[in-house]
Write a structure and sequence with these properties.
Blueprint lengths: L2 H13 L7 H16 L4 E4 L3 H13 L11 H10 L4 H6 L7 E3 L4 H10 L5 H9 L5 E5 L6 H12 L3 E6 L6 H4 L2 E4 L5 H24 L8
Parallel strand pairs: 1-2, 1-3, 3-4, 4-5
Helix pairs in contact: 1-10, 2-10, 3-10, 7-8
Amino acid sequence: MKTMTLRILQQTMTDNPALRECEPAIVSVWESLLLCFRKGGKLLLCGNGGSASDCEHIVGELMKGFVLPRQLPDSVKARITAAWPEQGEYLSSHLQGALPAISLVSHTSLSTAFINDVAADMVYAQQVYGYGKPGDTLLALSTSGNAENVINAVRIAKICGMESIAITGSKGGVLAHLADNVIRLPAEKTYRIQEMTLAAYHCLCAMLEMEIFAPDDAVSL
């Protein structure tokens, strides 16, 4: 772990003391996601209500620069310029490094069609079945841990050879026993779980970005 990555984790714990008991789980989830991205996998995300909004928020932090500028490697810039000499500089300067992530909640036409035509509690499972490949990861968000459509998505992720991560409340619900990696946030009220969820995934996104996109000469531990 790079020194700056560790500092992000430590600062999160300082700013959010209630998360200290979740620190080992957060590190474990970070390690799992880091391995996924480094091996060329992608992240699928699902959740309902506020958790659905969190899915889109997380994708926004992963698919573009969050804390770092994420400039393209020189080798990629050279390929772009070779292919498009006149537009190469513009294209290269307006692209950023990305960690591939797809919010399953964002596919309105597919979701509403599947909910209406087939089964509402299987909509995320269908998307996982369609997108998921071995080496990919599913991040399942549920404050109760008992959202049936999210649970079914995790079940199908396992069939697809994917890793599964759950972020939920202190009770954990079914997801706490089903997912491969679980962050059980120390709260029971929905709004408090959601507040802690934001801090937890901002920490994860910033740590991933620092570890993957920081300069190679960054100090490591």
